[in-house]
Amino acid sequence: MEILKVDQVKKIYTTRFGGNNVQALRDITFTVESGEYVAIMGESGSGKTTLLNILATLDQPTKGKIVLEGKDLGRISEKKAAKFRREQLGFVFQEFNLLDTLSVKDNILLPLVLSGYPQNEMMARLKPIAGRLHISELLEKYPYEISGGQKQRTAVARALIMNPKLILADEPTGALDSHAAMQLLDVFSEINRGGQTILMVTHSTEAASHAKRVLFIKDGIVYHQLYRGERSREEMYQMITNVLTAIATGGER
Amino acid sequence: MKELCKKLAAQNLSKNRTIYLPYMMAQVLMVALFYNLLFLVGNKNILTLPGGESVQQTLAYGSLVMGVFVMTFLFYVNGVLMKQRKKEFGLYRVLGMEYQHLKKVVFYETCIANAISFAVGIVSGIVFSGLLYMILLKILGERAALAFGISISAIWYTLLLFGFLFVLVLFRNLRQLKRVKLREMLQAKEQGEQEPKTKKGLVVFGIFCLVIGYGIALLVQNIIASLFLFFVAAVFVIIGTYALFTAGSIIFLKKIKADKERYYTPRFFVAVSGLLHRMKQNAAGLAGICVLSTMILVTCSVSVSVYFGQEHAIRTMFPADIVVTMVDTTNPEQDMEYIKNQAELAAQQTGISVRDVKLAASDSQLENAGSGYETQNVQISLSGSEKEKNECSKELEVNTDDGVYTYQSAHFVCKQSPQEGAESIRATYGGFLFLGIFLGVMFMAATVLMIYYKQISEGYEDRQRYIIMKKVGMSDEEVRESIQTQVLLVFFLPLGMAAVHILIALKNMVQICSILSIGWGTVILCTIGTVLIFSLIYMGVYRKTAKVYYAIVDRQ
């Protein structure tokens, strides 16, 4: 079943003093099926952050359509967009974006609180997720008391707690050491096996090799894509490297 | 290098103008006010006015209070400013500036900022002194004439005070620069503030101080003692306020947090957790705002009451328009009848009428002459304007040519009209009002500045938090609501507490005013009026600064 459809999306930024138009996205079209694990790769300036912001309803496309579960994201008001973001999407950011003033537990519960869930429902949802992400012992601690990997797992728990249709991850391993990064990617694979759709933007080959499909963006268009199929992670890693080399050296598709 | 340091200092000031401009503006205002106060204290023209001496004494006392306040307040605010800039200094160090260079930059910054505020302050002080002089004369009831003058000695004393302040500030800034480690400088604002501990002892202490302060204020019966004890009570209340705000607010917030049903709702969740973590540095500021507000309210209420109650006071002290004193009279009724006739004659000539004539126990004026005679007063009330009464008083003849009256039984009669005494009382009370407004304006400026800095520093701290919350799925509207809960709680707590303080202080204020023969009704009405007007101004300030806060939080 198709969960997300990105149809001929175009984004042009106008610099503040007029004149220069910068084309961040030229023409992006792709779809994501329910239960997929898609990585989007591209160098800095390729437009991947712009794409993610548009998917997250933090930004509007200049042209084109984005449909999530049959809902046109371009047609939601700011207020509804916030609610939509909270209930349909889960976010994992590079710099964790946890609130220092809230304990780990309260950080995870934040979206539920904003949506006005009752107490017992909150606790019922919290327990299994904290267990799955191995942070049950940390719930009463504060973000400045735990490690980077633990922070990112807290952020994943926060993204999962609303049972979102889609998890959007922006360079989730960017601020982690290699060990913590591996652990986090294992967590992602595991929740994907549980049926969770994940869309991850990254420029780490390691991270992308965990995905089931990799999209390559260059100069604002989808340049290439790879399906993992039955390949092992090592084979996938090699294939991604090849594509990246081809892109970098300007080789043919 | 020297040139570079100077340039950097000037640049820093203009770059940090959101935090420096209000500080400098407050300093300008305080320099100007202080200069003017000294200008009036040293003004010889005032001395020639009726009651001018007591006015100058009042103002001299006021300038002392103001000097102490200005020093402590500006010193404190400067500390807040430097804290905001810690990170900036850390960055300079990282970029390769040595402590020596940084020291020079800070030195020039402090020099430039202080020199500008002082110069602008003195100039505007001189410009406004004429106007202020006019206002003072008007309040004193004299016909106003614009007297433009520059008092060199006032400039000197102002320079002395602010020069001393400058040295203190400079010394502290440099010391702070030296003490802080580079790593701390860079992290200064990013360290996660830990959740503060509950300090039950401090709450008990705070309540204890408040109870003592309130107790003194409420239980004192002796009117003269209340004047002194009022200050003792004030000290207790100030200490109690600080302790309660620091510790009590934390306990209060933790209580909300412990109530899970309430805490886990959109309204409280973000606001309470944010407040709790910031309360440690917040509480002192809030208590400061509360104390300042109380000071404004007390000062303005009392001086306004004194001003509006002065006619009543004059009536009490001088119950009649003309008093004729009779010495050793054996037949007072008969003498009074004669004086009444004379008064009616005089009134007729002036074109007004005598309202009432009565015999009253003696007032001390003549007894003091040491004659040992028994005296009695005839009080004459007239209807008419002050000027007509004055004329009538001059017309009234009760003495024979040689000054000794031997009509009927009395040996000696003299008349006295209270106009002059009233003048002197009006002058003194007018001086009170003037000083009250003066100090009120200064305290107000201080309060506004504190509120402004609170909003700004909190805006910068909250910015990151609200960005995160928006990403996670909070709408602009929800963000605003949460900010409002937080800010309302923070802002109206000091105002509410100040209102309670003033309610308790009201008894003392009534007592003190009764020394000045001012009725309690006037004091209560004036206090209510002052509280209302102050609340309006406070809300206006809150609105204006809240806008600044939103702008910081919402900036893309």
UniProtKB/TrEMBL annotation, chain A:
A matching Pfam family: ABC_tran
Claim: Mitochondrion is one of the keywords in the record: no
CDD domains, A to Z: ABC_MJ0796_LolCDE_FtsE
Domain ABC transporter: 4-244
InterPro entries, A to Z: AAA+_ATPase, ABC_transporter-like_ATP-bd, MacB-like_ATP-bd, P-loop_NTPase
CC terms in the record's Gene Ontology section: membrane protein complex
Keywords: ATP-binding, Nucleotide-binding, Transport
SUPFAM superfamilies hit by this protein: P-loop containing nucleoside triphosphate hydrolases
Annotated family: Belongs to the ABC transporter superfamily.
Designated name of the protein: Putative ABC transport system ATP-binding protein
Organism: Hespellia stercorisuis DSM 15480
UniProtKB/TrEMBL annotation, chain B:
Transmembrane segments: 20-39, 59-77, 111-136, 148-171, 202-221, 227-253, 283-308, 432-453, 487-506, 518-541
Keyword Cell membrane applies: yes
InterPro entries registered for this protein in UniProt: ABC-4_Integral_Memb_Prot, ABC3_permease_C
The entry's keywords: Cell membrane, Membrane, Transmembrane, Transmembrane helix
Localisation per UniProt entry: Cell membrane
UniProt membrane topology term: Multi-pass membrane protein
Domain ABC3 transporter permease C-terminal: 63-171
GO cellular component, as recorded: plasma membrane
PANTHER family: ABC TRANSPORTER PERMEASE (PTHR46795:SF3), ABC TRANSPORTER PERMEASE-RELATED-RELATED (PTHR46795)
Name this polypeptide is given: FtsX-like permease family protein
Source species of the chain: Hespellia stercorisuis DSM 15480
